[in-house]
Amino acid sequence: MTLSATQADGADTARGRYDGYFRPGYAHRDIYTAQDVFDQEMLHLFGTTWVYVGHESEVPALNDFVTRTIGRRPVILSRGKNNGLHVLINRCTHRGAVVCRQAQGNAARFVCGYHAWTFGTDGKCLGVPLSHAYGPDFDMEAQNLHRAARVESYRGFVFASLNGEVMPLVDHLAHARRYLDEWIDRGDCLPVVVRAGSMRFETHANWKVIYDNAGDGYHPPFSHISMLRVFARRYGDVDMQYYSGNFDEAPLISRDLGNGHTLLDQRPSMHAQSAWERQHVMPGREKMWEALSEKYGEGPAREMLDASTGSGLNLNIFPNLLIIGNQIQLLEPLAVNRTVVHWFSTTLDGAPDEVNALRMRMQEDFPSFGEVDDTAQFEACQTGMECVPEMPWIDIRRHMNTDAGHRGEDGIWTEPISSDQHMRCYLDAWRRIMNAGAARACDDA
Length: 445
Description:
Layout: H1 5-15, E1 22-23, E2 26-28, H2 30-33, H3 35-45, E3 51-55, E4 64-70, E5 73-79, E6 85-89, E7 104-106, E8 109-111, E9 118-120, E10 125-127, E11 150-154, E12 157-161, H4 169-173, H5 176-184, E13 192-193, E14 198-203, H6 207-214, H7 220-223, H8 225-235, E15 253-258, E16 261-265, H9 267-270, H10 275-278, H11 285-296, H12 298-308, E17 313-317, E18 321-324, E19 327-335, E20 338-344, E21 347-348, H13 353-362, H14 365-387, E22 393-395, E23 406-407, E24 413-416, H15 421-444
Antiparallel strand pairs: 1-2, 2-22, 3-12, 4-5, 4-7, 5-6, 8-9, 9-10, 11-12, 13-21, 14-20, 15-16, 15-24, 16-17, 17-18, 18-19, 19-20, 23-24
Helix pairs in contact: 1-15, 3-15, 11-12
């Protein structure tokens, strides 16, 4: 297609449309507060890249389903015939009503509550009441629920994309694959199970404020000071007490994994000796230790418990999947200043009951205590950004100019854990994807 000079100028402008929201070491508040930016994110970001929708263990049997979203679009993740996974747009092709209105369940078909149009778990339209009234040219096949253009599972983690030309999932994951593998393979490589329930937090903040925090290794000793003080006073040198003094001198690191994915790695301190021994007192600890030691011996028991503590990883897979400790965190944007954060606890299939019981108890600190601290900070940031237009720039300079970073033998750029490189990395991916989306929209106009 040949463009006029005006159209060409418009396309060039669109290709750099979002560059103005950034300057070295700063991001503009509008990316968190502007309604039009949020609306375009739902189209150009969540609508074109890979988005995490659920774990295979949530839909283990034929006709199992859970309902989720892809950038506010309601979707159904279902298990169909031949063990197939389907991600269906949860919108009736008749009048647009949401078809499946339950969070999870098992159903051989989905029936729209408005006019009883009926669909299979693969999205096929199975029935339309009084269909003769639509005339002889009515095409049942054309009434099927729309499907995500691409659905792929990586070791149980199911991702979907509405963009049929998106890169292969393994390429999208980049270096995050290595750390996802390491997280999955803890605990004698027993399968991870995501059926132990979840906690839902609705936060009055933009989804990126929460994503910012997932890779922020600067805040723990300050935002969580009350929790850490209680633990230190009661139990001494337990988990996270290594966040003291100049913790940039501790072997705690932040890593750029490519494509907006990042890692905070606390393992060098958390697992330096015994992660299990660093855990604070919890109900049943001694009894379960005794039971495992008696059954397996002290050495194997300690290995099992070391592997069942928090992983020591904050693995952030852009744009909506956060793996923190032993939990999976899913971000669901609702509005420019409202986000639901889903925390899914995990167990290990086939592990001793004591291991999974302790694993569940260890997951109580976050979100039960820590997420309350974080949510207060999320909402404070959102309020400040929305209400003070005279201060439009958000500072993301930490360790940008200190020469503290280095490229490891694995080729991954690494900085001290308090660095802001997490924000710089994912916002760079955000800008690239948003600029590409704006350019496509201009080309299609």
